[in-house]
């Protein structure tokens, strides 16, 4: 068995497709009416569809998981993030951990937690 995809819930599929393309270079593989598969295995599920499946409320910024990306040019990434999405909500701005890795954490447009770090 292998992990195939990771699904996150979003309010606006088009805005989210643009966000993940602009910042991470992810492209659409399949777009199926509220369910979009992006490269690297990320799936965007429209919030109202997911809510109907679960019959439960969606809780943004719940901090129970994160999407983790690695980027060699982290300073360039942060500049692009601030230019394209100046009102993004940070958990922590660019920091350097004691082991030398630089990371930034922020929420996407729907409150999904993202960490971008330099390769280990």
From TrEMBL:
The chain positions of domain VOC read 2-119
Q: Which residues form a coiled coil?
A: none
One Pfam family assigned to this protein is Glyoxalase_2
| Protein name, UniProt field | Glyoxalase
Highest taxon above the source species: Bacteria
* Signal peptide residues on this chain, from the entry's feature table: none
Q: Which InterPro entries match?
A: Glyas_Bleomycin-R_OHBP_Dase, Glyoxalase-like_dom, VOC_core
């Amino acid at each position: 068995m292998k992990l195939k995809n990771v699904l996150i819930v979003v309010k606006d599929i088009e805005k989210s497709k643009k966000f993940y393309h602009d910042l991470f270079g992810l492209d659409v593989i399949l777009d199926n009416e509220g369910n979009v598969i992006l490269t690297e295995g990320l799936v965007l599920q429209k919030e109202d569809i997911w809510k109907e499946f679960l019959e439960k409320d969606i809780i943004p910024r719940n901090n129970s998981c994160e999407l983790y990306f690695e980027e060699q040019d982290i300073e360039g990434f942060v500049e692009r993030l601030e230019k394209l999405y100046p009102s993004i909500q940070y958990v922590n701005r660019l920091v350097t951990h004691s082991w030398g890795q630089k990371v930034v954490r922020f929420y996407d447009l729907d409150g999904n937690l993202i960490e971008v770090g330099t390769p280990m």
